[in-house]
Specification:
Layout (H helix, E strand, L loop, with lengths): L2 H9 L12 H12 L4 E4 L6 H9 L4 E6 L10 E4 L17 E5 L10 H11 L2 E7 L4 E2 L2 E2 L7 H11 E13 L2 E12 L4
Parallel strand pairs: 1-2, 1-4, 2-3, 4-5
Antiparallel strand pairs: 5-9, 6-7, 8-9
Helix pairs in contact: 4-5
Length: 193
């Protein structure tokens, strides 16, 4: 799959990545920020920046690094970095880990061939991660964009190789008349830096 072309086309449509500010996954991140001393956050695949807008409104002094295939939002952040999760050369290192890494509804869009590398990189970038992974079909513009539709029997061993799961939940909800399944992981890196 040509990720950049696929998502560039999807972000140009009105029905992709337009999310309500009250979404469950965004509230998870906001609650975490309220209850923990987070000064730096790296958001993986920020999309149109809905969550970043919420965070900036409630935590204006939080240092945010936004990443994606290219910049699809106009939210003012500390830094934006082009990152293609399928291309290891676009991943970055940091002398000190960020306080929190968020990656919401992204991992299911990837190819299984490089998913282990993504988790290894996550563990090197931040000590703590909030990950949400959808497990349902999603076809837009005739393209199945959820290329990995697996439950935690698939994700669990991969996650556990690099991250320690502190809290795991699952949620089922109806969106646009279809059931959506979401796995929520609050994790900590096993790789110490």
């Amino acid at each position: 799959m040509d990720y950049k072309e696929t998502y560039k086309n999807l972000f140009g449509t009105n029905d992709y990545s337009i999310h309500q500010e009250t979404e469950y996954r965004y509230q998870l991140v906001l609650n975490y920020l309220k209850n923990n001393n987070v000064k730096t956050l790296v958001d993986i695949s920020s999309g149109r920046g809905v969550m970043l807008q919420l965070i900036k409104r409630e935590f204006p002094n939080l240092k945010i690094i936004s990443t994606d295939l290219e910049r699809f939002h106009e939210v003012e952040v500390e830094e934006f970095r082009e990152v293609d999760l399928s291309d290891k050369s676009t991943q970055f290192t940091t002398p000190t880990k960020y306080d929190l890494l968020t990656c919401l509804d992204v991992l299911e869009h990837l190819d299984k061939s490089f998913i282990n590398n993504v988790f290894k990189w996550f563990s090197e970038v931040s000590k703590n991660q909030i990950l949400t992974i959808a497990n349902h079909s999603e076809i837009l513009n005739g393209v199945e964009i959820h290329t990995i539709r697996e439950d935690m029997t698939y994700w669990g061993p991969i996650v556990n190789e690099f991250l320690e799961v502190k809290n795991e939940t699952s949620k089922t909800f109806i969106h646009k008349g279809k059931p959506h399944y979401l796995y929520v992981l609050n994790t900590e890196s096993k790789i110490k830096k």
